[in-house]
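During the no-cost extension, the postdoctoral fellow (Dr. R.K.) reprocessed legacy sequence entries with the updated structure-token encoder. One reprocessed record is reproduced below for audit purposes.
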Amino acid sequence: MDSKTEAYHKSIFQFELAKLKEKEYLSEEHFEITMNAHKKYYSDLEEKRMAAAHSAAQTEKDNQPTKQAIKPVKKKLSTEEIRERNISWLLNVGVILLLISGLFVATSNWETMANWMKSGSIAFVSLLFYGMAYLSNKILKIERTSFAFIVLGSLFLPIFILSVGWFELLGPYFSFNGDGRFILGAAGSFLIVPIYSFLAQKFRSRFFVWFSFIALTTGAGYTLAAFKLERDGFYLGIMLFNAMLGAAYHRIKKRENFKLFSKELVYFAQINLVLSTILMLAFFNSHVFYSVNILVTAAVYLSMVFVTGKEEYHFVFSLLIVYGAYQSILF
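Re-encoded structure tokens follow.
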């Protein structure tokens, strides 16, 4: 029975027992004995209920399955992802082999083909890779493979420009050994800069960002070489170019559409400056011009403190200032 019914029965019993005592049907002693027995009965009954409830709770707890510690499950690649990964690895390995073969194609003597056909075949290979990239992306929906084909096609562009000069398609002047070879190199380098820059923006690729910077630096080097400067004049131009890279960083660092380039330009400018400095210190002709180059380089290193935020360049600046002043006074 529920608690309300039980309480009702208890009150009825006690009421009736009190009436019997009042009418002297029960003595005081029997009344006390009966009331105590009644209370003892319900007290024992409550204890049994509590014990049964505790036993049931313990049994339910024991029957519950023990929760095991959940171990992180290693993500398994799907069949499609494994296939795409394998294709990408094979294509990356093939990049080196194709570049070697491309260089052989660009510089070897083909007796059975005209020169324009030789360069045209290289251009066709580059276009073929671009076409395969389009097919992989739009139809097969394999983005990694598409990007690998884009890389292959883009790497054949410098080889095509090299073949144009090697086979003298623009005449002896703009040939590999002609007087205009530096102009051809500068034009070819600056021509592929916007192509690499476009691909870098389209695919958000650091790879093409660095290729853009390398092509730009190569174009600057060919441009300086076209003026037929002395070695010291060439290195002075390279240092000024490094200063221009630092100025370019300050102009584009806050522009959101150039964020990808500005982040990588910080690292490229540092590497380019260090390599230029090593070459400049190792090879020179005039000690006077050499000291001027060192002082200009010191100024560039000082500007790198503001570009990169690294105060370590200040020590290089101090050393170059002292060394440049020593060279100018000594000679």
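The chain has a mean pLDDT of 79. The chain is about 80% helix and 0% strand. The remaining legacy entries will be reprocessed before the final report is submitted.
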